[in-house]
UniProtKB/TrEMBL annotation:
Any Pfam family: Transpeptidase
Name this protein carries in UniProt: Penicillin-binding protein 2
A GO term for molecular function: penicillin binding
Membrane topology reported for the UniProt record: Single-pass membrane protein
Chain ranges of the Penicillin-binding protein dimerisation domain: 47-204
Keyword flag Isomerase: no
Source lineage: Bacteria, Pseudomonadati, Dictyoglomota, Dictyoglomia, Dictyoglomales
Length: 574
């Protein structure tokens, strides 16, 4: 074959390959490349929606949005050194860093965030030098802000970047880098607060460096919520608890409205927006006291003597005890070869059942518990929601644990011993509760049988100003005879007037309550005090729990007194 013929064949083969390539691009992949071409000049930018505001019951703002301005680079992404140098000079970002951005930026990205929180001076300089800078836009955005800092942090919660699961949810429609509620009310009411983002469509003509806004859909702001929290009462309660690890809950038992809910230690939700240093983050998540845990709803503790109220009611209702029954407390109780002690060394001597409640005498309740029996006590504990979630509108609520013969046989492979009944009778042994469950129990006693669902949001306000009122929801009713309520409340009144809760006594204010000091195998005993007032017509329930507080009467009751004093002096406005 001559050289001329070989050359001719090569030319023919090249033409065939070009035709095949053109067929592949224009016929076989016609739709793909048409779409690609469309997207090359039609871009859209997300316009974030302002998140709903969170108010306290007196319209004080607890969570709001701070407007910030952000600088975005937009197509066409041309790296022109003179323009980049000018941009670097204005916003204080190194040229090398901007260059790295340009190297990884995709031409299909509608915008790339270069800097958040521009200063007024930077904004003015950017606009004044727009013609000598690369293509950019300045977007108004919203940062969440919590003006009270750590106060009520466990109620409000915090925000964080959306998770992979949220991004993959078509219904949720989140974008990369967007923030969502991760904890507290921010998480519970995410769908209400979030709103709906908008977008701005832009046509780009790469050859002419020209942009035209072709469409815009404005974002829809989120709805706002009004909580039942009184932020000043919340502040007083947090100051009363001080540096103790523990919980304070204050509510209206007739509506379930939570007026204050404290869990300490706490955290500053603003840091989840501003950002943590590495040390700050490690200090937070490695803190053995776990500041991110809401102890009010997500921690379990033995109830100690506060559980005696359940034993008392079960005994009164089943005619196993009367207010006139008398007991003798020598300071200890013998069960076979085992000794069970009263908290008071030397004993209480002779006392009747009501004084047994007032003095929280263990020996009285050992006797009463054995008369009633563990199965009845277990039944009454369940009736008073001590193994149930209350349904409070916060994420992460746990349910308590009431032991039974069946549980012990199956789990521990042991029979139920009489000693187990003695421990159960004073709230020790295997029984565990959350502080919100004890608060619910006290609310049932205050209302003589009714439990309204504890809640923190009382009203939802729409963008148009419409209001959705959250009505009280009756979630439980316990039938107890009036005579049993009367005996129990007489004993609880005496707890404060002359018993273990004397430290709560306030002249002129009738308070009914119960202390609890719960032995703890991991350290010092826990301290409880829960009460309602005024005794004749209860309007408030106050529960205080101090982790490792040693004494309910000595540590928890004085804290409750500070909160009650604030309320009776007119601290709550409505």
């Amino acid at each position: 074959m001559s050289k001329e013929l070989v050359f001719k064949r090569i030319i023919e083969l090249g033409l065939i390959l070009i035709l095949l390539r053109l067929f592949y691009l224009q016929v076989y992949n016609k739709d793909f490349y048409a779409d690609l071409s469309e997207r090359n000049y039609l871009k859209s930018m997300v316009l974030p929606a302002p998140r709903g505001i969170i108010y306290d019951r007196n319209n004080n703002i607890l969570a709001e949005n701070k407007i910030v301005y952000s600088l975005y680079l937009i197509p066409p992404y041309k790296f022109e050194k003179s323009k980049i140098s000018k941009l670097s000079e204005i916003v204080g970002v190194k040229i090398e860093d901007i260059q790295k951005i340009y190297e990884k930026i995709s031409p299909y990205m509608p915008a790339y965030l270069l800097k958040r929180k521009l200063t007024p001076k930077e904004i003015i300089l950017l606009e004044a030098n727009r013609d000598s800078l690369p293509s950019f836009t300045i977007n108004m955005e919203f940062d969440r802000s919590y003006p009270y800092g750590t106060i009520a942090a466990h109620v409000l919660g915090y925000m964080g970047e959306v998770s992979k699961e949220e991004l993959e949810s078509e219904e949720a429609d989140y974008s990369l880098g967007e923030k969502s509620g991760k904890y507290g009310l921010e998480a519970s009411y995410e769908k209400v607060l979030r709103g709906k983002k908008g977008f701005r469509g832009v046509s780009l003509y790469a050859s002419k460096d020209k942009r035209i806004i072709t469409a815009q859909k404005d974002p829809i702001p989120g709805k706002s919520i009004v909580t039942s929290i009184d932020i000043e009462l919340q502040r007083v309660a947090e100051e009363a608890l001080g540096e103790e690890k523990g919980v304070i809950i204050v509510s209206n038992p007739w509506t379930g409205e939570i007026l204050a809910l404290v869990s300490h230690p706490s955290f500053d939700p603003n840091k989840f927006i501003e950002g943590f240093t590495k040390k700050e983050w490690e200090d937070l998540i490695k803190n053995p006291d776990n500041p991110l845990n809401n102890r009010a709803i997500s921690s379990l503790y033995p109830p100690g003597s506060i559980f005696k109220l359940i034993v008392a009611l079960s005994a009164l209702e089943n005619k196993k005890v009367s207010p006139d029954d008398r007991f003798f407390c020598p300071g200890e109780y013998w069960m076979g070869k085992y000794i069970f002690k009263c908290w008071k060394k030397g004993g209480h001597g002779r006392l009747d059942f009501i004084d047994g409640i007032a003095q929280s005498c263990n020996v009285v309740f050992f006797n009463v518990g054995l008369r009633v029996g563990d199965r009845v006590i277990e039944d009454y504990a369940r009736r008073f929601f001590l193994d149930s979630k209350t349904g409070i509108d916060l994420p992460g609520e746990l349910r308590g644990f009431i032991p039974s013969r069946e549980w012990k046989g199956n789990k521990l492979k042991e029979p139920w011993y009489p000693g187990d009944t003695l421990n159960l009778s004073i709230g020790q042994g295997y029984v565990l509760v959350t502080p919100i469950e004890i608060h619910a129990m006290m609310s049932i006693i205050a209302t003589e049988g009714m439990l309204y669902k504890p809640h923190l949001v009382s009203k939802i306000i729409g963008v148009d100003g419409s209001e959705e009122i959250v009505k009280p929801e009756l979630i439980g009713k316990v039938n107890i005879s009036p005579s049993s309520w009367s005996v129990l409340k007489k004993g609880m009144r005496k707890v404060v007037d002359e018993g273990t809760g004397l430290a709560t006594r306030i002249p002129g204010v009738n308070i009914s309550g119960k202390t609890g000091t719960a032995e703890n195998p991991h350290g010092e005993s826990h301290a409880w005090f829960s009460c309602f007032f005024p005794s004749e017509n209860p309007q408030y329930v106050v529960t205080v729990f101090v982790e490792h507080g040693k004494s309910g009467g000595g540590r928890a009751a004085p804290i409750a007194k500070k909160v009650i004093e604030y309320i009776v002096k007119g601290g709550i406005k409505n």
